[in-house]
Amino acid sequence: MNLAEWCIKNNRVSIVAFLMIAIGGVCVFQTIGRLEDPEFTIRAAVVTSYFPGAAPRKVEELVTDKIEKKLQEMPEVDSLTSQSLSGISVVFVEIKPEFKDMQPIWARLRNKIDDVRGEMPDGVQGPVVNDEFGDVFPVVIALTGDGFSNRELKDIADDTREALLALDDVAKVTLSGTQEERIFIDISHARLAELGFTPSQLADMLRGQNVLQPGGNALLGTERVTIEASGEFKSLEQIKQVSLRLPGRAESIYLRDIAEIRRDFVDPPSTLTRFNGERCIMLSVSMVAGRKVTDMGEAVRAEIDRLQAGQPVGVDYHVFLYQPKYVERAIDEFMGNLEEAFIYVFVVMLAFAGIRMGLIAGSLVPMAMLMCILLMPAFDIKLQSVSIASLIIALGMLVDNGIVSSENILVRLCAGQDRMQACKEAVKELWLPLLTASLTTIAAFLPIAIAKSDVGEYCISLFQVITLTLLCSWVLALTMIPMLCYFFLKPQKREQKFDNFFYRGYRAFLVGSLKHPFLFLAAVAALFCASLWGFKFIPSIFFPPNAREMVLVDFWQPYGTDIRVTRDRAAELEEWLLADTNVASVGTFVGEGGPRWMLSLNIEQENANYANMIVTLHSAEAVDGLIARIRERLDSGFPECRHTVKKLETGPPVGAPIKLRISGKDIDTLYRLRDRAAEAIRDVPGIINIRDDWGEWTKKLEIDVSQEQAKRFGLTSYDVAASLQSQVSGLRATEFREGREIIPIELRARGGDREDLGRIENLNVYSFQGSDKVPLLQIARAQLGWQPSGIRRRDRVRTLEVQADVQGRFASEVV
Asked: Is there a single domain that holds both residue 486 and residue 513?
């Protein structure tokens, strides 16, 4: 007894089983996890260190190289890339694709970083490991507050974060664009010298009066009571009232008499965010693994609506980036394709085989889909762009099994066979050929499944879903289709079946081909050669551009540009964009790339000369035209900027489509070869926006210390560097504790002394071992010099990357 016979004889059991499969498929479709992109492991971590005041070469030699050398000992590491900027070292760690469980690897990486921390020079902050670099935030909300201060807006953002974190589907909420608070003590160093203080002595005095130290505990009767000796600062006024004993004298002076004390935000800020031309705070929301992004999106929207109702006038929430919308759109498109597939199959079968045949063969389409969806959770497959595309691809393949099976049974019925016999013989004859055909089709997608690469992991569900769908189709073609044919298929007379226009034309073609076999074979060969020739006109691209109504704009001011200048230039472009009727909104991240709100993004690290703009349009049809206009505007109105303007990408992060790496030790040679490479590709058709990742040479102020003179005054090079750091950038003295906030208290020179480069030579250099001081000009000479903007390395070798974008052509054509 074969499958068809068993299903027919046990038709009630079979009908119940098929109904349970259909109902189960519908239920799973309603509850299965939904994402925009496949879950993809970004095997990357970022190790960041800060070395205030150090030039890129010093950062490279003293910080970056030591970190890379230690991390290179890990066998799991695939590649190391780094950038050494003024005062900052950033090392990107890529892990080999064959490793899936990342947590043990990140634990070993942290241990390596702990080992190297002791080798860092004095003054280095960190290194800090970020192993959540690949987290995706599908919902981003802009919080604006017209007339509200940064502090008030930050408090509202904190409360909003707490409310969103209470939602079941929300895993994490991060804030972007918040400003760090400081209590600044701006002092006149001339006045300080007159009183006999050094900055370090003043910091020590403040630190000694701001004490939060447990005093132990003691018995009070039968109870043990905690003793707390509190001397911490409780208000800004209390800091102003700090009494300072003058060195060598019995008198004291209040801090407010020699310094300006104020609570403010760090200026310049490290990062800024804007929405539609207004300053804002961005709240980025990530989802708990395995949940439906559509459910999370609805819950977040409902919570934001509730919070908005309780906010004062002027405070507004804008759901700026909302990925659930595109997931719902993709699922709606799939349902539309499924309906169309059933209709097309039914219409074709109706035209050539009748209504009964069309309904029977067409029923396999939705049934195979539901059966596949029912099985998807067992293989940890969720509804996302690749799995949905796989279901759509499979629509054109799975119906073949149903057509072949029902057609074979019909032929046998027309030949006079008994219904049961026709179904049994058809299944006996077809089970192996149909399985072979299905497996052959599946094998075409096998290279994707076995590829040890990011693309292979990203596209694995393509192979899984097509395999499941075709095998489900094969099972149904041997069970459900014969049962339906047994009960509903009506045999036709042979002359009736083949007496129509289609079969008469087909018969004439066959007769002509058999009469002229060489002509027929020559025609087939000619068509084959023509198809091979035509392949060269088909562009080769693995992942097509994303068709979303969005444009990404990245632009870089010259290296060394103050972030406030970058902000102002970004504001100019925002104003121009918002005047365009096609633009719905513009979100801007200044100084960093913001959160990874889509898997395919390459996130730029913190950099004061960088701005990232996300432009949302009313319609996807306007994207290409706007991209052309933005490029023209940037070229004409922002000549100093390097920029990229592009659509969203699909698939794993790629970055610039054209990259040329130049590696070597000598920096001058790298720059020279960069210019030659850029010139060589400039005239290639389709190449635009040629740039590199090092940037131009930037200015630096070199302080040449005379060691002999310094020794005469009892000073060292460390004293010079530390004095400059404390007077220009600020010296952290202590901290102010307010609720859950800890606000650093910094000593620094007054604005005129601090910001005027011409006054640097007149700053005092203090001995950090005593109270000696001397003007900088007496022991050192200051002169302007040049340095690389940043030094990038790949696997510990200096590597400069020439990059370019492509316009009007695909990257494969340009290459």
From this structure: no
**Are residues 420 and 352 part of one domain?**
yes
Lookup: tokens for 366: 């939705």
Judge whether 631 and 805 are in contact, CB under 8 Å: no
Q: Which residues contact 145 (CB under 8 A, 6 or more apart)?
A: 152, 153, 156, 280, 314, 315, 316
Check whether residue 72 and residue 193 sit in a common domain: no
Q: What is the pTM of this model?
A: 0.80
Contact 125, 106 (CB under 8 A): no
Report whether pLDDT(82) > 90: yes
The domain spanning residue 648 has which CATH number?
3.30.70.1430
What's the pLDDT tens digit per position in 500-517? 677 778 888 888 888 888
Please state which of the ranges 39-53, 216-230, 583-597, 695-709 shows the lowest mean pLDDT. 216-230
Residue 138 lies in a domain: no
CB 748 within 8 A of CB 726: yes
786 class by beta-carbon count within 10 Å (0-12 exposed, 13-18 middle, 19+ buried) = exposed
Range of the domain at 757: 189-215+235-257+699-788
Q: Where are the beta strands (DSSP E) in 243-353?
A: 243-245, 252-254, 259-265, 272-275, 278-279, 281-287, 315-322
Q: Is the domain of 531 the same as that of 510?
A: yes
**Single-letter amino acid, residue 537:** F
Contacts of 11 (CB under 8 A, 6+ apart): 483, 487
The mean pLDDT of 417-438, rounded to a whole number, is: 89
Cα–Cα distance between 448 and 459 in angstroms, integer? 7
- Taking residues 701-727, what's their average pLDDT? 76
> Tokens at residue 476, please?
């149904």
Give CA–CA dist 784/702, Å, rounded. 6
72 and 28 part of one domain? no
**What is the number of domains present in the chain?**
5
Tell me the sheet residues that pair with 81.
92, 794
pLDDT over 80 at 728, yes or no: no
Q: Do 112 and 48 share a structural domain? A: yes
Q: Which helix (H) or strand (E) holds 394?
A: helix 385-414
Give the pLDDT score at 261.
86
DSSP-assigned states of every residue in 225-237:
EEEEEE----SHH
- Per the domain annotation, does 547 fall within a domain? yes
Q: Are 34 and 294 in contact (CB under 8 A)?
A: yes
The answer on pLDDT for 709 being more than 80 is no
Q: In this predicted structure, what is the pLDDT of residue 279?
A: 92
Q: Comparing C-alpha atoms, which of 711, 416, 560 is closest to residue 56?
A: 560
Mean pLDDT of 803-813: 73
The answer on 468 and 444 residing in a single domain is: yes
